[in-house]
Amino acid sequence: MNHQTNHHGVVVPMVTPVAANGHLDESAVDRIIDSLLAGGVEAIFVAGTTGESIGVPLAMRRRLVERSVARVQRRALVYAGLGDIHPDEVAAGNEYLQAGVDAVVARPPVSFPTHQLLDWYRLVLDRLNGPTFLYNIPATTNVSVPLGVVMQLAEHPKLIGIKDSENDAGRLTELLQRLGHRPRFSILIGVGSFMVPGLKQGAAGIVPSVGNLIPGVCQKFYESAQRGDWVDAERQFDRMKAVTELYQKGRTIGESLSVLKSAMALRGLCGPNVVPPLRQVSAAEREKLREQMVALQLLDSK
């Protein structure tokens, strides 16, 4: 854990692999992490939205964090999501930091009153024992963290950045203009369609769920963007977009997570099991997915 770490690059929001008995599939955690490290990504974000964090029991999340930190062995950064916490219930975040994560990621509670967010986040930051990212994701929380709140919280010594997943291009532009060049404050983009313009405007990194399937492509995209080679960056991004549509197009967030896990299962990374109330895809859906993955050259045609 290092407050001065430069938090940037490709941050993959890792799925949480679940065994058929509902327990954490620890061997699959290792396989997924090995795949992400082989792709060269900068950081791995566990227990976030893509990791089904709301449905994962706290004991399982703790074990996920421990196993992930142990497998990564400082070869990348590890972030851990806190979920729907109350200021009095930050013990889990401090346990994650004690276990060796480089930062925790705190989204607001679902439907939390916006006018209370500044005080709520200050309490959380005061009680956490290490680096923290804000997490703005109105699609799941029904709360948009106002830019004015972000600006005031940016003065807090424990706040090191924000993962912004709000589908608002104007907001992102303003956020980057206000805080994009602030030392030791990293803006990470969680909306796929904003990743190219966001990096052009100075964002520190991206958080692509498709990195679970093609981490190397995501890394090449980021590296090309950093070189200013936007022709190659756009080419890599086209590949990211095509694979993302495999599991996201026409689906809710929950549905897309089920399909993403099935896609990973077809590649031998984990099982297709999801945490209730999510539903595992049917055999017919899985066969159609297999055909689509073959077409995208994600699987052999055998």
What is the number of helical segments per DSSP (H or I, 4+ residues)? 12
CATH T-level fold name: TIM Barrel
Q: What would the principal axes of the Cα set say about the shape?
A: globular
Number of domains: 1
Name the CATH class: Alpha Beta
Description of the molecule:
This protein has 302 residues and is of the alpha/beta class. It has a single domain, classed as TIM Barrel (Alpha-Beta Barrel), CATH 3.20.20. Helix content is 45%, strand content 12%. It is built from twelve helices and eight strands. The chain has an eight-stranded parallel beta barrel with strand order 1-2-3-4-5-6-7-8, surrounded by four helices. β2, α2 and β3 form a beta-alpha-beta unit. α4 packs parallel to α6. It starts with 8 loop residues before the first strand and ends in a 7-residue tail after the last helix.
How is the secondary structure organized here?
Layout: E1 9-13, H1 26-38, E2 43-46, H2 58-72, E3 77-81, H3 91-99, E4 103-106, H4 117-127, E5 132-136, H5 138-141, H6 147-153, E6 159-164, H7 169-179, E7 186-189, H8 195-200, E8 205-206, H9 215-227, H10 230-248, H11 253-266, H12 283-295
Parallel strand pairs: 1-2, 1-8, 2-3, 3-4, 4-5, 5-6, 6-7, 7-8
